[in-house]
Amino acid sequence: MEHWHKFVSRYLWIAPHIFLVAVPVAMYVRRLNKTFPLFFFYTLYEICQFLLLFGIYLLAPTHAILYQYVFVVALAGSAALRFGVMQEVFNHVFHDYPRLESFAADAMRWLTGFLLVAAILSAIYSSGSAPDHLLAGVALLDRSVAIIQAGMLLFLFVTARMFGLTSRSFAFGIALGFGLLAATDLAVWALRLSGSNLPLVKFLNLLLTGGFHITVLVWMGYLLAVEKPSNAASYAVPELEQWSGELERSQ
Q1: Domain span at residue 157?
Q2: What is the pTM of this model?
Q3: Domain CATH for 183
């Protein structure tokens, strides 16, 4: 049983990042890195983060504190980038509605500031050693991003047709992948509240890495599939133009 868990945990840690290499390569070939530059950078960041942590794990297995510090910093960067990618997807969706795009950008900046303040306060007032302080703040940041991400992506899925975003578009694929990732994070967080016994902790660790594995496969599938071009104007509803006009007149 122990050998089975070790094999699966190693696979779910390593394999998704190997598959992830294909995502920025395919994006570069299809020139999608110019349309979604932040998501392109996010994939490269995740690959580099894995290589760094895996290198520490192999070359310095006794340096647990070093691994923990690097993990905390890397997790904070990943949470910030995921938040940025959400903004990038929404900018892409709202591209034909400049005032709505500006409104969404302003709201995202306020949310970013709020999350950073909350994470810093959590790190300051949490108990334990310095790495535990940092982990508490970053965990709050990551969880908050997952909650907001899940809500925003749910809104995007519900209103996709309204904004001319088809389920075959790569923007929808990015959102779907992050939606699955956010749902997994929130499910794991909820399960952690129910107990902390060793079998449960091992299962939750596999659930997290397994969720990331599925997310990477979703992105690969969308990149390999033939994307059907869509015309946003053909799906747009008159109310959107009205909202954008009202926002423009109010500024």
Answers
A1: 2-250
A2: 0.77
A3: 1.20.1070
